[in-house]
Amino acid sequence: MRAELHGSSESLAAFGKIHFFVCLLTMPIDAKRSRRTFRNLSRELMGLEKKFAPENVHKFRTNSRRVEALLLELVDKPDRNQEKLLKLLARLRKKAGRVRDLDVQVSCLRNLKIPQANGHKAHLLETLVQERGKREKKLAKAFDHATAAEVRKRLKRVSSKIHIPGNAEPLALTVKRLAQLGRGQEPVTEKTLHQYRIVGKRARYIAELAVDGPETARLIKDLKKMQDVVGDWHDWLKLTQRAEALLGDSQDSALVAMLRNVTQAKFRQSLDAVAELRTALAGHNLGTRPSDSPQKRAASEVARAVAAA
Q1: Do residues 158 and 172 share a domain?
Q2: Domain CATH for 159
Q3: How many structural domains does the chain have?
Q4: Where are the alpha helices (DSSP H) in the chain?
Q5: How far is C-alpha 297 from the geometric centre of its chain's CA atoms?
Q6: 3-class secondary structure, 267
Q7: Are residues 147 and 181 in the same domain?
Q8: CA end-to-end span of the chain
């Protein structure tokens, strides 16, 4: 299943002018919130050790991404302990992600009302539940007591020694990746659309570490709205692909036909959400005045460079 959005060069150029550069590069990072990120993940580790319930898996995965975003975007050069922590988290998060994906697909399918499915819904649901059980066993095997203890130890060590430099340039690099998605004349495909959510999510996690302010709150709200809509589409897309692999074409299954219709509708909603985000972030004057701070002038220079790319 493929869907494309043309005119990407014009739409992506807007990202080069966004106020996002200025507000992210000039708002200070809250040190307490940064350290709290590590404590939150350590707490979620305890919950996951007790039970691999959907909520526990989801919280562990989300908080792992927050720690990864902090270390990858705000630390100039991760030390050996930080690198080992990142490697551990990446391995566990991927396994948790496979379980989480199945949890979401099962939930979507259960809530789908279809009167004539010829047993296809029950068959697909049973297949997903069985695979979820297999994936949970693999996660449990990787997430043994020794591994959990090592992750907690490294989290504590990183939290006590982490240094976030005053120069927040890595944030600009994150947003620059957003600006580069679908550059040129190539159409925006489903794969490209999903990248908006991935890169935007990391930018949002960094923004959540900043001190409170109306600009910060607006930015986080805009990013989260886009992520939720695109993420919902992607979950239905994966469910549709599973149904197609198991049940065949839409001509063979009313369930597959319905899933395709739902996914197409959610894809269009995702395109609208991305367009709304661009509109929300674009249109600000990034010109500097002599009284502007060096940091703000640097932010404007970065934004202009991306716009010209």
Answers
A1: no
A2: 1.40.20.10
A3: 2
A4: 8-13, 20-26, 31-50, 54-74, 80-110, 120-142, 145-161, 169-180, 190-207, 214-247, 254-281, 294-308
A5: 29
A6: helix
A7: no
A8: 31
Last residue of a domain, one of 113, 137, 164: 164
Same domain, 109 and 154: yes
Full residue range of the structural domain in which residue 241 is found: 1-29+168-309
- Each residue's pLDDT, cut to its tens digit, for the chain (309 residues) gives 444 444 443 444 444 334 444 455 455 667 788 889 999 999 999 888 888 999 999 999 999 999 998 888 888 788 999 999 999 999 999 999 999 999 999 999 999 988 776 889 999 999 999 999 999 999 999 998 899 999 999 999 998 888 776 555 545 555 666 666 655 545 667 887 888 888 888 888 888 887 777 777 887 888 899 899 999 999 999 999 999 999 998 788 999 999 999 999 999 999 888 888 777 766 433 333 434 444 444 444 434 433 333
Residue 53 tokens read as 């319930």
- Whole-model pTM: value is 0.78
Give CA–CA dist 25/185, Å, rounded.
29
Domain end residue (candidates: 132, 164, 196): 164
